[in-house]
Structure formats: structure tokens, C-alpha cells
Design a protein that fits this description.
Blueprint: H1 2-18, H2 31-34, E1 45-54, E2 62-73, E3 78-89, E4 94-108, E5 114-127, H3 136-141, E6 160-172, E7 176-183, E8 202-209, E9 211-212, E10 225-235, E11 238-249, E12 252-265, E13 271-283, E14 287-296, E15 307-316
Length: 339
């Protein structure tokens, strides 16, 4: 019975975790995670670090780290990048890590519009901290589980290792962008047991527009910018819409988002709503720093502790000794940074 209970517990955990990939509220501060077609959409070397602590009061919740680097190889009409993510869940130390190589290729449709197609080749592994597990035979002799276990289920736990493939497309100019991405195209098996726990394919549609609030004849040092955007995601039986707006008055950036689909009901027949997100950041020519907090509005309630998120982006300009005419061939992806 102990082994059956143990297996059921892990199946429940696997189903809960695979229902939704880790996410970032500041989704455009994690562009390579959102869509590999964003690889190489700046003219500089781009370094980005992301940190998210979701529901810290709910059994330690979920903690996610991401680091990425990418660069535009304009002489080859291409972009290359690297992305590493680590996601930690719950008190049992469940950890999923993934390392990805990204490539994109770009076409100019006109002097204003660019199409980018991207691929992401990843290798992942998933583990759990055995020292944080408590088995039934431990509780029989000590209510705190501070005795050794002889449960044979312990020896059935393995590290899950798998390849993971993603792809995406993006069309953009200096002020408008629209993209589509698909993740887990090979539906890898992430089970820690000798069973099957496939990751369902995740698809996302995202877009936005950058609206300068002054287009007059006089040049200004500071121009306020309004930028509404959205991301719609679908994975298995789960779907979600993030909808909001950024406002920039150089260098201060403010943002507000709503996450959920209030016209739809979830599995518990409640309105499908998750959080209201508030963002505060600073954007300079080469450095961008952002902080956001998710106010939980779902049935989980404010007792979850909400979610904290920090992002840092740094652009490093390294001029290579090559023909520079092609450097202007591709339009950099829209941002709130003054053009």
C-alpha cells in the first residue's frame, strides 16, 4: 500500500507540474524563452537574467531562474543564442534544468518589415532531493520521519533526461511585432519513474505595438511611449491570456497586466483568472532593470504570497572587423528604448 500511495503521489505531482511550463510575467524581458525567433533581434550582444518566485507561502511554491545570451550575425542574416533555465518546485526539491542552443534566420520583406524564424535545441534533466522525502515506514516509527527507510520505491526514482525542441516565427518592424511559438515539439517524457509523463506541446501567440506619444516636427530628448501587448498560451487542457500595457517616460517604465480569461471557467467552474501584475523598471541605453509583483486574484487567494520577479538586461556593443553596411540591413526588434 505504501508503494501504491507513493506512486499515486508522484503521478499527481507530475500531472500538476506538466500542466503548465514555468512562466515569466515580464515576458518580453525573457524574449528567447518566449520565442526562439527573437534570437539576434538586437544589434548588440544581449545578456539577460530573470528570477521569479511564485507563491512563496504555498509550500515554497515555484522558483525559476533563466539566463540568456544572443547576438545578431548580420553578415549571415542570422542570430545565435544560448538559454539556461532552472525551475524548482515544492518542499521536496523537485528541480528541472534545461540548456538550449538557439538559431534564427531573417528575411527582409521590405525596407520596413522583417520576418524571423527560430529554432531551439534543448537538453533537460529533472531530479528530486531524496533527503527531503518522507516514506510511510519512517512515519511508523517516528512522526517526523527521522529514521531510515526501507521502502523499495526509493530505488525506482531516477533522474529524467531528455531532448526538447522548440520553434517559432516572428514578423516585425520598428513599432509592431507579431509572433507564434511552439514548445516541446517532440513531447518528451519527464517521468522520474519508469513510466510515461509526456510534456504536452505548448503553443503561444504574442504581439504588441510601440506608440510614441509625440511625432511632431521638433526633436525631443525624451518622448513618452505607450506599448500595449499580449501573450496567449495553450498547453494540454490549460490556456491563458496575458494582456497589458507598458508606459515609458525615459528612463522610468511602468506597466500593468491582467492574466486570465474572465469569460471562461476553469476545471472548478470558477472564472479563469490568475493575477494582476504591476511592473516598475528603468531603461537606459544599454541597461534595463525591471521588478514586477503578481497580485493573485484566483481562488488561491492572497495567502499564496503572490509572485515576485526581477529582470536585468545588458547590451554590449562589440564592433567586429567586417563590412558594416549589412549591419543596417535588419531592423532591430521594437523596444521601449529611444530610437
Amino acid at each position: 500500500m505504501r508503494r501504491v500511495s507513493y506512486t499515486i503521489f508522484f503521478w499527481v505531482q507530475a500531472l500538476l507540474i506538466q500542466a503548465q511550463d514555468p512562466q515569466f510575467s515580464q515576458y518580453y524581458a525573457a524574449p528567447l524563452y518566449l520565442n526562439p525567433a527573437f534570437t539576434g533581434t538586437t544589434l548588440d550582444h544581449r545578456f539577460i537574467a530573470n528570477y521569479r518566485n511564485q507563491w512563496p507561502n504555498a509550500a515554497r511554491g515555484f522558483v525559476t531562474y533563466a539566463f540568456s545570451y544572443d547576438y545578431n550575425l548580420y553578415q549571415y542574416n542570422s542570430g545565435i543564442g544560448f538559454l539556461a533555465t532552472v525551475d524548482q518546485a515544492g518542499t521536496a526539491g523537485m528541480q528541472s534544468s534545461q540548456f538550449n542552443f538557439l538559431y534564427s534566420y531573417k528575411w527582409n520583406l521590405s525596407s520596413q518589415w522583417v520576418v524571423s524564424a527560430g529554432l531551439n535545441f534543448g537538453y533537460a534533466f529533472r531530479t528530486i532531493d531524496m533527503n527531503k522525502l518522507i516514506f510511510g515506514d519512517q512515519l511508523m516509527f517516528d512522526s517526523n520521519g527521522n529514521v531510515p527507510t526501507d521502502d523499495p520505491a526509493l530505488f525506482n526514482l531516477n533522474t529524467a533526461r531528455y531532448f526538447d525542441f522548440h520553434a517559432g516565427g516572428l514578423i516585425y518592424n520598428k513599432n509592431i511585432w507579431l509572433g507564434f511559438a511552439a514548445s516541446h515539439l517532440n513531447t518528451p517524457n519527464q517521468s522520474l519513474l519508469d513510466q510515461e509523463a509526456l510534456i504536452p506541446i505548448k503553443t503561444s501567440l504574442h504581439g504588441g505595438v510601440r506608440i510614441p506619444l509625440y511625432n511632431g516636427p521638433f526633436e525631443r530628448d525624451r518622448v513618452s511611449v505607450l506599448s500595449p501587448s499580449f501573450v496567449y498560451k495553450h498547453q494540454g487542457r490549460f490556456d491563458q491570456l496575458d494582456l497589458g500595457v507598458h508606459f515609458l517616460y525615459d528612463p522610468v517604465m511602468l506597466g500593468i497586466w491582467y492574466r486570465g480569461i474572465p469569460v471562461q471557467q476553469n476545471a472548478k467552474d470558477n472564472l479563469s483568472q490568475d493575477a494582476v501584475v504591476v511592473v516598475l523598471g528603468f531603461q537606459f541605453e544599454k541597461l534595463e532593470i525591471g521588478y514586477s509583483y503578481d497580485f493573485t486574484v484566483s481562488e488561491l487567494g492572497p495567502g499564496s504570497g503572490g509572485s515576485h520577479e526581477v529582470s536585468v538586461k545588458y547590451l554590449l556593443d562589440i564592433q567586429l572587423q567586417t563590412k558594416t553596411k549589412k549591419k543596417d540591413k535588419f531592423i532591430p526588434c521594437p523596444s521601449f528604448i529611444k530610437k
